[in-house]
Amino acid sequence: MAASELYTKEARVWIPDAEDVWKSAKLLKDYKQGDKLLRLELEDGTVVEHQLDPRTMNLPHLRNPDILVGENDLTALSYLHEPAVLHNLKVRFIDSKLIYTYCGIVLVAINPYETLPIYGTDIINAYSGQNMGDMDPHIFAVAEEAYKQMARDERNQSIIVSGESGAGKTVSAKYAMRYFATVSGSESEANVEEKVLASNPIMESIGNAKTTRNDNSSRFGKYIEIGFDKRYRIIGANMRTYLLEKSRVVFQADEERNYHIFYQLCASSNLPELKVLKLVSANNFHYTKQGRSPVIDGVDDAKELINTRNAFTLLGINDSYQMGIFRVLAAILHLGNVEIKDRDSDSSIIPPNNAHLTVFCDLMGVTYQDMSHWLCHKKLITATETYIKPFPKLQAINARDALAKHIYAKLFSWIVDHVNKALHATMKQHSFIGVLDIYGFETFEINSFEQFCINYANEKLQQQFNMHVFKLEQEEYMKEEIPWTLIDFYDNQPCINLIEAKLGILDLLDEECRMPKGSDDTWAQKLYNTHLNKCDLFQKPRLSNRAFIIQHFADKVEYQCEGFLEKNKDTVYEEQIHVLKLSKKFELLVELFQDEEQSVSPTEAQTGARTRLSVKPLKARATQSSREHKKTVGHQFRNSLQLLMETLNATTPHYVRCIKPNDYKYPFTFDPRRAVQQLRACGVLETIRISAAGFPSRWTYQEFFSRYRVLMKQKDVLSDRKLTCRNVLEKLIKDKDKYQFGKTKIFFRAGQVAYLEKLRADKLRAACIRIQKTIRCWLLRKKYLRMRSAAITIQRHVRGYQARCLAKFLRRTRAAITIQKFQRMYVARQRYRRMQDASLIIQCMLRGYVARQKYQQMVREHKAVIIQKMVRGWLARQWYKRSLEAIVYLQCCVRRMRAKRELKKLKIEARSVEHYKKLNIGMENKIMQLQRKVDEQHKDNKNLHDRLTNLENTYSSESEKLRNEVDRLRGTEEEARVNSNRITSLLEELAKLKKELEETQREKKTIEEYADKYKVETEQLVSELKEQNTLLKTEKEDLNRLILEQAQEMKEKMEKALVEETKQIECELNEERSRYQNLLTEHLHLEARYEDLKEEMTLTMVIPKPGHRRTDSTHSSNESEYTYNSEFAEREEEASRGPEDVPKAPLDMSLFLKLQKRVTELEQDKQSLQNELDRKEEQIHRIKATEEEQRNRARGAELEYESLKRQELESENKKLKNDLNELRKVLSEKPTAAISAPGSPAYKVLLDQLNASNEELEVRKEEVLILRSQLVSQKEAMQHKETMTEAMFYAEDLQKMKDSGEITQAYLGLKEVNRSPKFSSKPVEVGDLLSRIRSPPKDYHELNEDGELWMVYEGLKETNRLLESQLQSQRKGYENEAEVLRGELQSLKEENNRQQQLLAQNLQLPPEARIEASLQHEITRLTNENLYFEELYAEDPRKYQFYRISLYQRIIDLMEQLEKQDKTVRKLKKQLKLFAKKIGEMGVFNQVENVSPGQIVDEPIRPVNIPRKEKDFQGMFEYKKDDEVKLVKNLILELKPRGVAVNLIPGLPAYILFMCLRHADYLNDDQKVRSLLTSTINGIKKILKKRGDDFETVSFWLSNTCRFLHCLKQYSGEEGFMKHNTTRQNEHCLTNFDLAEYRQVLSDLAIQIYQQLVKVMDSILQPMIVSGMLEHETIQGVSGVKPTGLRKRTSSIADEGTYTLDSILRQLSAFHSTMCQHGMDPELIKQVVKQMFYIIGAVTLNNLLLRKDMCSWSKGMNIRYNVSQLEEWLRDKNLMTSGAKETLEPLIQAAQLLQVKKKTDEDAEAICSMCNALSTAQIVKVLNLYTPVNEFEERVSVTFIRTIQIRLRDRKESPQLLMDSKQIFPVTFPFNPSSLSLETIQIPTSLNLGFLTRV
User: 3-state DSSP call for residue 434?
Assistant: First the structure.
C-alpha cells in the first residue's frame, strides 16, 4: 500500500520528543512522494514542521485507531512499534488503572506503588480453570497457564520474573506461589502450601533491604521449584539462591538500609527473651546507621519479627535454633561496633575490655584474647617457618568486615538449607513449576563486579527468551501452512562469548586472581590488549585506564575495574574462622562452619585467605574436593548460571517483565523515559519487533466476517466463509503480500487492520449521516405538526372561555333574585313558629303537673304493701334455718359417738390374725359398699346444693327488684317537689309577661324602626362573617391537608423503619443461619477428612492378627455415648499397637506445639469441671443427710402394703396361667380342622376366652404400668438419684398423702379402674387417675387409722414389680406370634384372592382360551419382571446376561410344565367321561343325558364371591431386626431415583422408613428406633458420598430427607404440627419416644444434602454461564468482534459445541422438572432456584469485571436481553416470588451502566442513584474497563470517573471487587404436612421389600 494512501490529511503520527519520548500529531496536508517536510499539528494546537531524515527518508510512525488503544495484548495493535506500545501501556496504567498487559507470550507488570484489591481468593477462584486469553491480563493468568500446561502436557514449567529493583519482581513471584498454593492444595496434613508461602517472610527478612529505588528490594536471586504429585497437588519445594549482596552487611549508601532482620531485632530488643542479646536502637550500630534511614514508612519492624518467627516455627525451626540465629545476627552488629585503633603505621590494636567485642565473644562462645588478637594479626606460612604479621588499621577493619560478611553468608546458606529441608517432599515428585525471581538489567553511575554478573545473567536469559519467541512465531506459521521466511532477530551470542568464552572477561579475571601480584590495573590492561579493536562490543573509555565498556542487548554499560579482583576472590582469614570453630558453647556456630575446610588462596602471598561460595547449589554435596573450594566467585556463578539455563531449557518458560513507572514511588505516575528504558532492557520491544516482522494481526474467518460484514455486498456473501473472506480481501487490499490465508486464520501485515478499520469506519460514518438526515427530517415535521395542532387548540379554548364567562354572569343575576325571595319568606315563618311554640309549652307544663301529683299518691300506697310482705317472709325463713341447724348438729353428735364405738371394736379385731383374713376376703365388698354410699351422699349433697342455689338466686332477684323500686319512687317524689315549685314561679312569670306584653306592644313600633337599621348592619356583619368563615374553612382545609400529609409521612416513616428493622432482623437471622450452616459444612468436611484418613490408615497399617476388632465406618455422630466411647477405646488400642506396626513419621514441630497447647487447655477445662463436680457432689451429700429419716419412716409402711398386694396379684396371675394352659391343652388335643374352623362352637369358645384373656392382660398391664411409674419415682427418691429439688418435692408429696388420706383414695381408685368394664376399651388417662388419687377424702379416715390400707397398697406394688417381667415376656411372645400369623394369613389371602379372580376369569373362557389366558398372564408377569431387571442391570451387562440365561432356563421349565399339564388335562377328561357315564346310569342327572362330558366341562362356572372382612391397617410396616441391613440396602443404597420418581408416589422411601419407625415406636423398642434412624442417616450419607456428583440422586434424597423430617414433625404429637392433620393421621402419631433431637440431626443432614445439590448444580452450570450469558451473541449483529492478539479469546460467535443461553434455560428446566418429579417442597425449590440465579449472576458479573472486551454498549444490551429471558423462564415456572430475580439485580445494573450516558454531572447523579446494588469499586471498575467497539462510541473520561468516586465516597460497603460466587444462602425447611394417609401406602414389588409386613 502506497504511503500516499496512509499519510493523508488528518492522519495521526508519532514524532520523537526529548521529554515525553514520543508525541502525537496529525498531518495538516497530504504527503506526496519526495516531500522532505511534514506540516503537523500537535495535540495542544501547536503547528510544527517535521524534517525527514535525508538518508533514510523514513516517515514517522502512524498512530493506531482509538478503538485499538488500550488493548489487553500489545500484539493486537495494527501498527507495532515503540510509541504504540508506550502509549498503550500508559493509557491502561493511567486511565484504566490496569497494571498488567500482554505482549505476546510476555506479561508486562507495572508497579502501581499502591495496594490493589485484585489478589484475593475470589480473584484466584475466578482465574482458576480459565484459558489465558479469556480473562484480562493478570499474574494469576500466567500461573494458571503454567499449572494447566503442566497437567496437560506432562512437562515441567518455569515462570521467569525479571525487572529492575523496585519493579515488583518479588511481589509477582509471591503472588504466583500463592496462586499455586491456593488452587492445588497439599497431599499431606502438614500443609506444604502454607510452608511454601511461609518461606517468603523468612527470605525477605534475611535477603531483602531498602534501597533508593525500592523499600523491599531483593538483594539476591532465587529459583523456587514447587513440586507436585501425580494428582498435581503440592508436595514440597526447593530453593536455589544466586549472588547474595554481602557487601550490604557492612556498608549502605545514603537513604538505604541493611537487611531487614537487623532492624527487626533492634525494634524488638525490649522482649524478655532478647535481653541477652544486649541490643539497642539501630542508630547505635555502625552496620545499621550508615544509610541514615533506619525506618520505612508504614512498616512496623517489631510486627515483622513476629511474622518471621511464626514462619520459622511453621517451617520446623524451633525456638532454640531461632535464638541461635538471633545470637549470630546480634554478634555481627556488635562486631561492627568493635573499635580498632592504630598502634603504629604498620600495626593496629583493639583497646582492652572493649564492650562490643566482649558481647560478641559471649554470644559466639569464643575467648576474648583470641578474637582480639586475630582481628589485628594474620599468619604467614613459609617452607621453614610460620610468621605472625600485624595488620594496619585499614586492613584490620577490612578483615573485620570480611569476617562479618562471611558469617552472614554462612548463616544465610544455613537458613536456606533448613528451609529446603522443611519444604522437602516426602513422596516422589511427579512434576514441578519453577519461579525465577532474578535481578533485571542494571546500569548505574558506578558499575562494579555485582552489576557485571547481573548483566551477564540477563544476557543469558535474553538469549533464551529470543529463541523461545522466535520458535513460537515460526511454529504458528507452520501450523497454519502459510509461506514464511526466516525472521531476523537480535542474537546476543557475541556478547556472551565476550564474557564467558576462552580468554573472555571472566577467564582473564580468574587468571589474574591466580597471579601472585595480580591487580585491577594489570587485569584492565590485559582486557585492552585482548579485546580492544578486535570485538565491536568491547570499548575503552576515553578518559580512564581502569574501566571498560560492554555493548549489552539493552544498552552500553561502563564498568569500573576497581574491586573486581577482591570481590572475585572473596577473601577471609582462616585464623578468625578457626577461632569461631573452637566455640564449645554455641552448637549453631559449629554447624555453620562444620563443612569449612582449609583452602589456599589463588595468590601465593596470601596463603591464609578463604574463598566463599556465594551461589547456593540445588543439593549440597556431602564431600567436595578442595579443588571446588578454590573456584572464584565468577567461576561458581558461571557454573550455577549454566545449571539454571539447563533447567529452564528443559521446561516450558513463561515470562513476566516488571516495569518501574517512576523513580519516586508515586502511585499511578508514569515516566515515559524510564518506561522506555526498561522496555528496551527487558526484551518487550524485541518481541514486538519479531512479531512486526511477520504477520502480527491474525483473525479467524468467522471473526473477520462478523467484523467486516459491513464492507461486503449481499452478492459477495457466500455459504463458504473462507471463500467469502478471500474474495472481499482481494477487492479491498490489492497487494497480496500484505496478507496470507491459513487453515483457520487470516494473517495480516502491520498496518493492514488499521486500514480495514478505516474503511469500516468510513462506511459506518456514511450510513450514520444518512440515518441522521432522515431522522432529523422526521423530527422537524413532527415538530411542525405539533405546533399547528397546538395553535388550533389554543384558539378553541379561548373562545370557549369567553362564552363560559357570559353564561356565568347571567346565572349569578338570576340566583341573586331567587335568594332574596326565599330569605324574606324564611324570616316571616320563623317569627310565627316562635309564638306557637311558647303557647304549647305553657299548656304542657300545667297538664303534666296535675297528672304527676295523682300518680305519686298511687305509687306510695302500692310500695308500702310490698315492703310489709317481704319483711314478714324474711322473719319466717330465719326461724326455720336456726331450727334446721340445731337438728343437724344433734344428729352429727349422735353419729360421731356411734362411729367411735365402732372404731374401737374394729381396732380390737384388727389385732388378730383372723381379722387380716376377713379383711382380705371382704375388702372388695366393703369397698364397693363404701363406694355406693359415697355415690348416694354425692347425690344428696348435689340436690341440697341445687336447692340452696335456687333459693339464693330467688332472694337476690327479689332484693334487686325492691331496691330498684325504692330508687324509682324516690326519684318520682323529688321530681314532683321540683315541679310544684316550678308552677308557682311560672304563675308569677305569667303575670309579669302580661305586663311586659303591653310594654312590648308599645315598644313594637320603636323596635321595628330599629330592626330595619339592624337588618342592614346584620347583613354587613353576615357578609363579613361569611368571608371569615371562608378563610377559616380554607385554613382548616390546609391544616387538615397538612395533618394528613404529616400523618402519611409519619406512617411512611414508620413503615419504612419497620421494613428496615425487619430486613435487619432477617439479615441477622440469615447471617446466623449461614454461620451455623457454614460450621456444619466445616464439621462435615472434617468428618469426611477423618473418614478418609481412617481408610488410609486402615489400608496402610500392617495388621498383626487377622482377628482384630474393627469399628464400623458408617457410624453416625448421633449414636449413643457408649458407642463413641468404645470406638475411642479401640482407637487408643490401635494407637498403642501403632508403633509396632507402622514406622514412626517425622515429627512436625508446629503441629506438635499446637497439639501441646490444646492439651494444656483441655487439662485446664478438665480441672475446672472436676472442681464443679466435687462441689455438686457435696451438695448432694448434704441433701442425703437431711432426707434420710423421712425415707426410713416411709419405707416400713410401704413394704408391708406391697407384700399384701403382691399376694393378691400372684393369685390372680396363677388363675390366668391356668386358663391359658387349659386353652393350649384344648388346642393341642383337638387340632382337627372342624374344631378350629371359623364359625364352629369350639372356635367361638376359644375366641371368647382368648378375648377375655386379652382384656384381663390389658387391665393388668395398665395397672402394672401405673404402679411401676409410682414405684420408680419413689425408688429414685429413696436412692438419691434425683436432685435436691426433686427429693424435697417427693418428701412433701409423701407427707401430704399420709396426712390427707390420699393412700386410701389411691387404692380405691385403682380398684375401681380395674373393675370398670370400660377399662379394656379405653384406658384411664394419667391425669384422671391423679385427680382421683388427689381428691379430698370423705368418710374414710376410720379405714386407715392404723395404716392397713397403706400396707395393702405397698404389697400390691411389690407384687406388680415381680410379675411385670413375666407379663411383658408373655405379652411380647404372644404379639410376635400373632403378628407373624397375621402377616402370613394376609399374604395367603391376597394370593388366594388373586388366584380366585384369575380362576374365575379363566373358567368363563373356552378351554383353548383358558390355556392362552394363563399363558398370557404368565407372559405378562415375566415381561414386567424382565423390564424391571433390565433397568436394574442396565449398568452391569454381565449381570444382565446372567439374568437372561436364568430367564431362558425358567421359560424352558415352564414349557415342560405346560406339556405335563396338557397330559394331565387329557387324563382328567377321560376320567370325567367315565364318571359322567356312571352318573347317567344311576339316573341322577337324567336332564343332561344328551350332553357330552366335554360340554359339561366347558360350561362357564360362576365364581362364588366369599365375603371377607376388611382389615383396618394402622399405617405401619413390621420388619425383623435382622432385615434392617436389607431394608437400607434395597431402599437407599441400591435404589434408582429415576424409576422411583416416574412410577411411584413422591417421597415413597421416606414414608416407608417412617412407617417402619412407627412400628418400632409401637413396640416401645428404643434400640430398634435408634438403630433404624442411625442406619438410615448413615445410608443416605453413604449413597451421597458414592454418587454425590449425580444431580438426580442428590435431589431425590434431599426431597426424601425433607419428607422424612416433615413426617417426624407431623406425627410427633406436638400441637403446633398436629393442627393440619386429619383425625386418622392424629391416631398415627408416635406414642413412646420423643425424636426432637433426631429431627435436628435430620435437619443438619438436609442442609448437607442441599449444599451438595448446590455444588452439583454449580459444577454443571459453571461451563455454561460465561459462554451463554456473555460470549454468545443472543442478538445477532449488535456487537462486532474486535481484533485480538496472540492470546486468542474464545470467540463470541456460536460454534458447534459452545454453550448458548438456550443451553442454560434447558438445563434450568431439567433441574426444575427433576425436583418436581421427586416431590420436593415448593418453598425448597424456590430456594434452589434463587441459589442457581445467584450463581449465574455472580459468575457473569465477576467475568464482566475481569474482561475488558466485554464492557461495551452492545454487550450491555445482550446481557439485558439474556436477563429478560431468565425472568421469562421464572414467570413460566411460576417462580417470580422466589427472590431469584433480585439476585440478578447487580448484573442488571452493570448492564444498564454500560448503556447509560457517561458525560455530565447529571449522568453521574443518575448512575449513583441507579447502581445501588453495585459497590463503588465495581462501578469504577466497569467505567474503567468500558471499551468502545465502534469509533462513534466514546471512552469514559477520567474526570467523570473521579466525579463518581466523590459522590460515592460516603457509602459504607465492602471493598471487595468480586461477588462471592461460592456463597450459599442459608436454607430453611418450612413445615409441609402431607395429606396422604399412611394406611393407604403399599409397597410395590419392584422395591424388593417383601420382608416388610403391612400392619
Answer: strand
Q: Which helix (H) or strand (E) holds 1446?
A: helix 1437-1482
Report the interhelical angle of 1407-1432 vs 1348-1403 (nearest 10°).
Answer: 120
| Nearest CA-CA partner of 1766 in 1721, 1715, 1722, 1732 | 1732
Going 657 to 663 to 664 to 669, the CA torsion angle's sign is negative
Furthest-apart CA atoms within the chain: distance in Å: 174
Question: From CA 783, how far away is CA 791, in angstroms rounded?
Answer: 13
The helix (run of H) or strand (run of E) holding residue 381 is strand 377-381
Rounded to whole angstroms, the Cα distance separating 125 from 1746 reads: 12
Specify the pLDDT at position 1288: 42
Closest Cα partner for 262 from 206, 336, 318, 220? 206
Q: Where are the beta strands (DSSP E) in 714-768?
A: 739-741, 745-748
Q: Which of 1482, 1579, 1473 minimizes the C-alpha distance to 1524?
A: 1579
**In angstroms, what CA-CA distances link 1689 with 73, 453, 703?**
11, 40, 11
Distance in angstroms (rounded) separating the CA atoms of residues 777 and 1770:
43
60 closest CA partner among 6, 19, 18:
6
Least confident of 828-837, 1093-1102, 1302-1311, 1473-1482: 1302-1311
For 128-169, how does the pLDDT look when each residue is reduced to its tens digit (9 = 90+)? Answer: 888 887 788 999 999 999 998 898 888 899 999 988 877 888
pLDDT digits (tens, 9 = 90+) for 1696-1743: 457 889 999 999 999 999 999 888 999 999 999 999 999 999 999 998
Number of other residues whose CB lies within 10 A of the CB of residue 1340 = 16
Q: Residue 1540's pLDDT band (boundaries 50, 70, 90)?
A: low
CA-CA distance, 1224 to 1243, in Å (whole number)? Answer: 13
pLDDT in the model for residue 326:
94
Q: Which residue has the higher pLDDT, 1664 or 975?
A: 1664
Cα separation, 1326 vs 574, whole angstroms? 100
3-state per-residue secondary structure call for 1030-1071:
HHHHHHHHHHHHHHHHHHHHHHHHHHHHHHHHHHHHHHHHHH
Mean predicted confidence (pLDDT) in 1825-1845 = 82
Residue 557 pairs with which residues in a beta bridge? 550
Which is nearest to 285 in space by CA: 328, 329, 334, 326?
334
Indicate the SS3 state at residue 47. Answer: strand
Name the residue with cell 371377607: 1508
Geometric angle at alpha carbon 1056, from 1051 and 1058, rounded to 5°: 95
CB atoms within 10 A of CB 522: 14
Evaluate whether 1605 touches 1860 at the Cβ level (below 8 Å).
no
Of residues 568, 514, 541, the one with CA closest to residue 446: 541
Ramachandran area for residue 185 (φ above 0: left; ψ -120 to 50: alpha; else beta): left
Name the amino acid, one letter, at 631: K
SS3 81: coil
List residues bridging with 387 in a β-sheet.
380
DSSP 258-319: SBHHHHHHHHTTTSGGGGGG----GGGSHHHHTTS----TT--HHHHHHHHHHHHHHTT--H
**Residues 1547 and 1719: beta-carbon distance below 8 Å:** yes
CB 61 within 8 A of CB 83: yes
Distance between CA atoms of 389 and 378, rounded to whole angstroms? Answer: 5
d(CA 415, CA 315): 11
- Residue 761 CA, distance from chain mean position: 49
Are 567 and 448 contacting, i.e. CB atoms less than 8 angstroms apart? yes
Identify the band that residue 1783 occupies on the pLDDT scale cut at 50, 70 and 90: very high
pLDDT digits 0-9 by tens, 375-428: 898 888 777 788 888 888 888 898 899 899 999 999 999 999 999 998 888 788
Q: Which helix (H) or strand (E) holds 235?
A: strand 234-242
The amino acid that residue 1171 corresponds to is N
